[in-house]
Amino acid sequence: MQGLEELPTTVSDATVDTPETAFTKDEDQVWDAAPECSICFTSYDNTFKTPKVLQCNHMFCLECLSRFVAVSPEQNSTQIVCPLCRQPTSVPENGPPALTTSQEVLGQLPSHQQQEEIVWLDGERLCYSNPQSPNGVCIDIGGSKQQNENRQEEIENNSNRLGNCTRLIKTWQRLLIFLLVLVILLAIVIWPIQCIFKQGTISGCFKNQDEHLTTLTTVSAITKR
């Protein structure tokens, strides 16, 4: 009959999705569609990586914004300057955890992460309550980590400078010893040649040397008397 689409008549003509293939495709789609923070390139979640929206509508994770507030001397930590458009956003009284959460992004997360957890600031730490940990789970978001890294880097740089100076001193010491040995060798080689030009023979050099020693011995004996 005309107007009907011809169906594949063999198994090879049709595309059959097995359960394993369908699961792999769904998994790949979820992985590719997983939103992530444009600062740390980490996928969002419902705790430290909660998607927070600034007044400019740019979105970043809670941890990155909290670190910005903790280490930024600008505005006395009362504003967050968007790293993309530089538009400031006022920090709520309770800190970055009180910023607006993107419910749209939370809805794209796995089902067990679609409910936002309560996260709060504890000094320079970001914490949330975890049933498996009675004291909660906290991460350091203050400047202490960066300061420790800078201090460690400074110590390593000073150690490298000291090592370079030590190696330079040893190199100069070896060079001076080499020059001293070279001068001694040149003196040993040049003195007989110079004496031969003056005396005509090598024996005359040693004869003059013996006479010089005899004279010194006689003068010394007379002086003692």
From TrEMBL:
UniProtKB keywords: Membrane, Metal-binding, Transmembrane, Transmembrane helix, Zinc, Zinc-finger
Could you state one GO biological process linked to this protein?
Answer: protein ubiquitination
Ribonucleoprotein keyword on record: no
- Name the Pfam families for this protein: zf-RING_2
Give the RING-type domain ranges.
37-86
- GO molecular function terms here? ubiquitin protein ligase activity; zinc ion binding
TM spans (from-to) = 175-193
Q: Is Cell wall biogenesis/degradation tagged as a keyword?
A: no
- Can you name this protein? RING-type domain-containing protein
